[in-house]
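Hello K.,

You asked for the raw outputs rather than the summary table, so here they are, unedited. I folded two proteins back to back in the same session to keep the settings identical. This is the first:
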Amino acid sequence: MVQTMGDQGFVHPTAEIESGAVIGQRTAVWRHTHIRSSARIGSDCVIGAHVYVDVEVVIGDRVKVENQAAIFGPASLGDGCFVGPGACLSNDRHPRAVTPEGALKRSSDWEALGVSMGEGASVGAMATLIAGTRIGDWAVVGAGAVVVGDVAPYVLVVGVPARPIGHVCRCGLRLDDRCRCSCGRTYEAVAGEITPTSS
């Protein structure tokens, strides 16, 4: 049995939605997912099973977060983003369980830095995005990559640490050496970044 939310959205009864979380219309939240207070999820999203959405996370509309992903606050995901299974968007560049004096760290002992994803950006399965990184519009992070720096729009990065190996179209396919996609879209390099010339 699922609990209906908004206009035809639903939350599985095993999901935990804390008080103060906001979920948009037609969004589906699957089993054993935990959405913390102050998290905001837009409309028409799919949040898979066993997903963790932390406090102060903002997720846009039409976003898909696959099973077992972990998104730590204050991450921000633009409209149309994709987060693959088991991916982690971290928020601590200097992780320690304890202070230098040996006391258990509290939230006041460190500064959370969220990952930012632009419109249409995708993160592959089991990828890790280090705290504070920005993934540009329509960029793609390959499966298993570890992203330690910003990724420009339409760039494809892979590896550990992640490095750019090409450019991608809005449809997700790689561009050829003349910035064309087999789907018919074309792009051009402007000030070192790829921008679309056709839609």
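The second followed immediately with the same parameters:
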Amino acid sequence: MTYPVRPERSALLVVDVQEEYFDPDGPASFPEAHDRLGNINALVEAFATHEAPVVYIRHAHRPTGVDVGRMGDFAAEDEEDSFIEGTPRVAFHDGLEVLEDATVVTKTRYDSFQGTDLDGILRTLGATTVVIVGYMTSFCCDTTARSAHSKDYETIVVRDAVGGPDLEYLDGRPYPSAQVLEDVAAALAAGFAEVLQTDDVLARLEAE
């Protein structure tokens, strides 16, 4: 299975490239966020050059927490709240290439389609292929890719333009982010998305 990246039919989804992941004092930060930013920006610039749509996704909750839902079940009681609307960390990272007149979608769930107008935007743009980059690998990127697949979009996840922090196995052992990426990529590639590198996407974009 190989999906073309046609400028008139493809959209880049830039998922949650927000200060939460870059601020070392925040609960969601991880060093790899900086490592992926160059590839994310390269894809934004390439899509813009080819006049292909770029949609920026941001995660934000009301300060009262009334829209957190079941996501709050998995936060430790002493963990600092994150992605709170109106706080500095909810802003896009200042190193992200944000296009003029950017299309921005705000979500309150891992799935970028859930409770948002993303699907309507993509269909209005005529997009049949979505290319997913951003954070976190195993939460918002993974869930958004599976949701896009279920809506019959040709789905591409860019392996070297997504990232996330280390996790833990069920027995408490460290689950390194590199292994998380390998596992998520393998699962997605088995039945949900084509998994590519940045250079692969750029080459396909140039070929169309």
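The helical segments are 32-49, 118-125, 137-150, 177-189, 198-207.

Happy to rerun anything if the numbers look odd on your end.

Regards,
P.
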